[in-house]
Amino acid sequence: MMRAWILPMLLVLSGSAVATGQIFQGSPAAATALLLAFLALASVNSPLIFPRSIGAQAAQQRSAVDGRPVVFWRPGCKYCIRLRIRLGRNARQLHWVNIWRDPAGAAAVRAANDGNETVPTVVVAGQPHTNPDPEWVRERLSPSM
């Protein structure tokens, strides 16, 4: 769990240090802008923007029942962030599995990607798709959802 927060915390600390330096140089406006930029980067890379993760086994069981895709992801992955942001509200319709928290999820991703932990890996109807286009994923969601 703590591993997911390393990058966001480093961004917050770095932004604070840079902003402090700008304040000492007499540029409070630049300090504010830089701090806000670093905070935005930290929030985008934090696990907070992703729907609550569940285990791989639970996600696969739920997907078998409701037909919704399963997304294997990890914090800090720019492609996972792109998928999450581009899906918008539709992201809550998917089952999200954080491979850093779930060893079974990491194993499923390695099995689908020749031993590599390449994410996002989206499983639709039992078929894995590595780093698919967000529009393609949106099309796979049931229209009734």
Automatic annotation (TrEMBL):
Keywords: Membrane, Signal, Transmembrane, Transmembrane helix
Organism encoding this protein: Streptomyces neyagawaensis
Protein name, as recorded: Glutaredoxin domain-containing protein
Signal peptide segment: 1-19
The keyword Ribosomal protein appears for this protein: no
Residues that span the membrane, as ranges: 29-50
Coiled-coil region: none
Residue span, Glutaredoxin domain: 70-127
Pfam family, any one: Glutaredoxin
